[in-house]
Amino acid sequence: MTGPAAARRRLAATALVALAVTGAGCAAEHPDSPRPTAVEKPTISDGVQVFQLVGMSNMRFSAGTLEAKPGKIRVDFSVEDGGASHNFDIPKLPGTRTGIVGAGGSQSVTFTVTEPGDYPVICTLHPNMSAVLRVS
Ligand SMILES: [Cu+2]
C-alpha cells in the first residue's frame, strides 16, 4: 500500500504512539503531584544558617532546594498538622537524621558542611520525598 492515504495513516499511527509514550512518562514521573521547586535561603542566627523546613501532608518537603554556604547549618524540621509522620536525613552527612516526627511535632538538627556540593535530602519513610541541600 502506497500513496498519500497510506502516508497519512502512518503519520496518524506515529502521533498516537507519541501520545501514548508521553502519557506513560507523565504518570511515572508524578503519581501525586510535581516536586516542589521552591528555593529556600537561610536566616542567620549567631552565625548559623537556619532553615525552616516542613514535612507536608502531601508527602513533600516545603522546599525543593536549601541554598547554603559552607559552614554551620541548623534545620528546624516540623511536620504539618493532620498528616503523616516524617523525618529529615542527608545520607551523605552523618548526624543529620532527625527521629520520626509526628504530625504537629518538630525537631532541629545542627551540622557543619565544609565541602561545596549538592547533598540530597530524604525522608526515610517516603521514597518520593526529596530535596537538595546546595552548598556553594
Ligand atoms: Cu515522609
From TrEMBL:
The keyword Magnesium does not apply. Pfam families: Cupredoxin_1 (PF13473). InterPro entries: Cupredoxin, EfeO_Cupredoxin. Residues 45-133 form the EfeO-type cupredoxin-like domain. Keywords: Signal. Residues 1-27 form the signal peptide. This is Cupredoxin domain-containing protein. It comes from Frankia nepalensis.
